[in-house]
Amino acid sequence: MATNRGEFSSRFGFVMAAAGSAVGLGNVWGFPTQAADNGGAAFLFVYLLLALTLAYPTLMAELIIGRHAHANAVSALRLISPGRGTARFGTVTGIYGFIVASLILAFYAIVAGWIIAFFLASACQLLGLDGLADWLTRFGMGRNLLFMALFMLLTIGIISEGVQRGIERWSSRLMPLLLATLLCLVLYVMTLEGAMDGLKVYLLPDFGAALKPGLIIAALGSAFFSLSLGVGTMLIYGSYLTDRENLPVVGSLVTLVDILIAVLAGFLVLPAMYVALHNGVQIFTDSGELISGDSLLFTVLPELFSTMGIAGVIVSMVFFFLMSIAALTSSISMLEVPVAYTIEEHNVGRKKAVFVIGGLIAAASAVILLNFETLFGLTVSFTTRYSQPLLGFVFCLYAGWLWHRDKLLQELRKGNPEVAQGLFWKVWPWHVKFVCPLIILAIFGQALLG
Ligand code: PFF
């Protein structure tokens, strides 16, 4: 195990970093439209239920294993394995996890690059540089490669500074800024004509729509993606926590912040879409569903902003700034996974590991961009739809079945000597042993069956 591997200096720093990883494009972009299309507040209810019954327990499995080992996923799973076979399986799982984290970063950096370009385009518009603004919002290959590389450089810059001076310092600055920006945008959008219609769609529950079986499975998948589970991100952040920290408490804080931001984003995106409708922008697809995904972000919202004059340019800039922060605090957590593995398992210095791995991931992003039609969707579904649930399943097996229960309890007791008397210890061990693997198998089965 490496010495001098870095540690979060405070609970606030850890919660900001882990919530920063969790809060990303999934929250601000994916969740609100999914809710609108699937029963509004009823979907919200299902999502909350799943976040608490599946995502939180799996998050705890990663945090406890990571904190116990104070090492990357490969060493950590080897350490808690009862035999040689399970240790070897742990190595394979850890390596698979870091490959998946790297691939998620490869596609995330592409989208984040688009977002930064849109942010700069609004700034150019404010300065009257309309030609440049136009280039920045067109999806040309040159622009795409340039901004992907720029985003990767930002990520590399933060991660090369290490745990406290990189991850913790930047997350503690950016996350409060994200929350404040989001609140300001919500309040502003609420004052616009049409916003109340969006609010109604978001808040009036339609239980019929929210209880369709396919939908529950989809909500499960997005809860998993949203909390960055399976790939070892939370495990590695947990490994930088001090032994004094009370794990169930910090885990629940991270889950709550993630849920809070997703719910708040709903108060922004849905009202904004109905303001767009009020301003004559098309917000429904031909089959009558709300436009979501990349068309929502890069077509509907910019069209809305362009109907709002100068205020629209400012709102657009603030909105894409917010998305850039959300993406950056997530991407740093993805890069830390392969970097920590390389530093600890192969004795490479941090700076060298960060630049080589970051460079390789940027190269993978470029390959995806150059073969966008075939590779983009494939990478997204291989990583988020299949690999994350599968890896989460294995983490639950290690925490629930393979790791000795007494050792697990000892680990939890370090930060909370009375933990055995509390509700967490009464429920979680059984939950992570039986309920989580079964639910994850259901998601996985559904994903395989398409
Ligand atoms: N949780 C991030 C989001 O909601 O956008 C995505 C993510 C981050 C997935 C980190 C996986 C990961 F390791």
Q: Any idea of the CATH topology? A: Amino acid/polyamine transporter I
Straight-line distance between termini: 41 Å
CATH top level is Mainly Alpha
CATH architecture group name: Up-down Bundle
Q: Structural class of the helix and strand makeup?
A: mainly alpha
The whole-number mean of residue pLDDT values reads 93
The gross shape turns out to be globular
Q: What is the count of DSSP helices, taking H or I runs of 4+ residues?
A: 19
Strand fraction band? Answer: under 5%
The total domain count is: 1
Number of DSSP strands? 0
Radius of gyration: 21 Å
In percent, how helical is the residue content?
Answer: over 70%
The kinds of small molecule bound in this structure are: 4-fluoro-L-phenylalanine
Report the major sheet.
none
Unreliable residue stretches: none
**Strand/helix succession:** HHHHHHHHHHHHHHHHHHH
What topology does this entry show?
Elements (H helix, E strand, L loop, with lengths): L10 H12 L2 H13 L3 H29 L3 H8 L3 H43 L3 H8 L3 H19 L2 H29 L4 H9 L3 H4 L2 H14 L6 H7 L7 H32 L14 H14 L2 H38 L3 H21 L1 H31 L2 H11 L7 H27 L1
Helix pairs in contact: 1-8, 1-13, 1-15, 2-13, 3-4, 3-11, 3-12, 3-13, 3-17, 3-19, 4-5, 5-6, 5-7, 5-15, 5-16, 5-17, 7-15, 7-16, 8-13, 8-15, 9-13, 11-19, 12-15, 13-14, 14-15, 15-16, 16-17, 17-19
